[in-house]
Design goal:
With 420 residues, this protein is an alpha+beta fold. The chain has 13 helices and 16 strands. Residues 356-377 are annotated as: Disordered.
C-alpha cells in the first residue's frame, strides 16, 4: 500500500468517503491546503447526510435521532489513501461523534469489531459484476454483445480495459483478473483476498475507479442488481477463507470435505443467511435477481462448485492450490453495504465455531431439479423472496442483533424499509 501523500507530495484534492446503511458511498472533496488537517482530525457532516438517508435520499428518523439536528465527524483512514489520478486521491472513513466516540451507525467500525470477534484469521475477496453501456447516441447500447466469457468482448474494449486496469493498479486495488461475463455489456473484476476491512475498502474504491474510467470514455457503468440494459443481473460475490495457525480450515480432507472448523463455519453461515439476506441484497430490485435459475445463490444450501447454491465450496484454486480453499457467498449485490454484508457473515462464522455443527450434506446438483420432497429431505429452501420478508428476518435475528448491535440493525431497517 502506498504511503499517503500530503499537499507537497502531489495531492490537490482528497475525496473522503464512507458507505452508509443505505449502501451509498457519501463523500466530500477536500482542498490541498486542508488535506493534512482532515486526515488528522476529520471533518464535520450532518447526521442526516452521513447516516439517515434512504437509498432514495429521503431523511428518516431512527434511534431517537432527528435528521435535521446534529453532526458527526467523518474520520478518513490515512493508511488507505489511494491515488485517482490528476492530483486527486481517495480515502475511506469512519463515522464518530464530535467527542471521538464511535458513532452507532458506522458500518466500517462494525466490521472491524466483527473481524476481531471472529477469533480466526479471515480473508475476504470480492467479485464485482457491472454492465458498461454507451449513452452517446441518446439510447443505451451495451459495450459488447458477447460471447459470454469470450475473447471478442475484451478485444473490442482493449483501450477501455487497459485504462481501467492501469487506474486500478495506480490506486493499489489488488486485481486478480478482468473478464467478460455472461451478459451483453457485462464485465467482472475479481479482487484478491485481504483482511475484511481492507477488502471492503477495496471494493468501494474499485467501484469508484470503474465509474471514473467509464465516464472518461463517454460510457456508463451499471452495478444494479437488474441493470437497464445488457445482462439480466449483476452480483457482488464474496469469497471467504479462514485459517488457524497457518492452516486453511477449508482445505479438503481425504473425504473431500473441509476440516471440522470449515464445516462448522459453513453451518453457521447457512443458519444465519436467511436473517442476513437483507444485508447482502439491500433493495427491492435485489429480489428480482435473487431467484432460482439465475446463478444468484437463491437456494440456501452449499455444494462443491455449485453456482446455484448460496454457499459454493472451492477446495482448491489455480494459483494457490489447496491452501487457497474458500467458500463463495453468492446472494450479494452492489446495493449492499459491503462492510455490513461481510460483518454479518463473520457473525455467522463465529456462531458456527462457537457451537460446532455439521451443515446439511452438500448438494451436487442444481437444487431446482430436485423435487419438493427431495429438497425438504436435504434441508434445502430458498432465501427470502422480497425485501420486506428479508427485513423481517433480520429484525427477528437475535444473533445479528447481538453481533452488530441493536441500534445498527434498527438503523438499517429504518433506512431500508420501502416508503409507504
Amino acid at each position: 500500500m502506498s504511503e499517503p501523500q500530503t499537499e507537497a507530495g502531489g495531492i490537490r484534492r482528497l475525496l473522503v468517503a464512507h458507505v452508509d446503511a443505505a449502501g451509498v458511498a457519501r463523500a466530500r472533496a477536500i482542498p490541498a491546503a486542508r488535506v493534512d488537517n482532515v486526515l488528522e482530525h476529520g471533518i464535520a457532516a450532518s447526521i442526516s447526510g452521513a447516516a439517515l438517508f434512504t437509498p432514495a435520499d429521503s431523511p428518516v428518523g431512527a434511534l431517537g435521532l432527528d435528521p435535521v439536528i446534529g453532526d458527526v465527524r467523518v474520520r478518513p483512514d490515512a493508511r488507505r489513501v489511494a491515488e485517482l489520478g490528476d492530483g486527486w486521491a481517495w480515502a475511506p472513513a469512519d463515522l464518530r461523534w464530535a467527542d471521538d466516540r464511535p458513532f452507532t451507525g458506522c458500518t466500517r467500525s462494525a466490521l472491524r469489531r466483527a473481524a476481531t470477534a471472529a477469533d480466526i484469521d479471515v480473508k475476504v475477496g470480492f467479485e464485482i459484476e457491472f454492465v458498461v453501456a454507451d449513452e452517446a447516441s441518446g439510447s443505451l447500447a451495451p459495450a459488447h454483445k458477447g460471447p459470454a466469457y469470450g475473447q471478442r468482448p475484451l478485444v473490442r474494449n482493449l483501450d477501455y480495459l487497459d485504462d481501467l486496469m492501469t487506474a486500478l493498479e495506480d490506486a493499489d486495488v489488488p486485481v486478480l483478473q478482468v473478464h467478460a461475463e455472461h451478459g451483453d455489456g457485462q464485465f467482472e473484476v475479481s479482487l484478491a483476498p485481504r483482511h475484511p476491512v481492507d477488502a471492503c475498502d477495496d471494493v468501494v474504491l474499485a467501484r469508484t475507479v470503474i465509474d471514473l474510467v467509464t465516464e472518461r470514455f463517454g460510457l456508463r457503468a451499471y452495478f444494479d442488481p437488474v441493470p437497464p440494459i445488457g445482462a439480466d443481473s449483476n452480483g457482488m460475490h464474496i469469497h471467504l477463507s479462514a485459517s488457524r495457525d497457518g492452516r486453511n480450515v477449508f482445505a479438503s480432507t481425504e473425504e473431500g470435505m473441509p476440516h471440522a472448523e470449515g464445516t462448522a463455519i459453513i453451518a453457521g453461515i447457512l443458519d444465519l443467511l436467511p436473517s442476513a439476506t437483507a444485508l447482502l441484497a439491500g433493495s427491492e430490485s435485489s429480489y428480482k435477481r435473487l431467484r432460482p435459475g439465475r446463478w444468484s445463490g437463491a437456494w440456501n444450501c452449499w455444494g462443491r462448485g455449485n453456482r446455484e447454491a448460496a454457499v459454493r465450496y472451492t477446495p482448491t484454486t489455480t494459483d494457490a492450490g489447496p491452501s487457497g480453499a474458500n467458500i463463495e457467498i453468492k446472494p450479494g449485490d452492489a446495493t449492499a453495504n459491503p462492510y455490513l454484508a461481510v460483518a454479518a457473515l463473520l457473525v455467522g462464522l463465529r456462531a458456527g465455531l462457537d457451537r460446532p455443527a455439521e451443515p446439511p450434506a452438500p448438494v451436487d446438483v442444481d437444487p431446482g431439479r430436485l423435487s419438493d420432497d427431495e429438497r425438504s429431505a436435504r434441508g434445502v429452501r430458498t432465501l427470502p423472496a422480497s425485501l420486506a420478508d428479508a427485513l423481517a428476518e433480520l429484525s427477528a435475528s437475535g444473533l445479528l442483533r447481538e453481533g452488530l448491535g441493536d441500534d445498527l440493525v434498527d438503523l438499517y431497517i429504518a433506512v431500508r424499509t420501502p416508503a409507504g
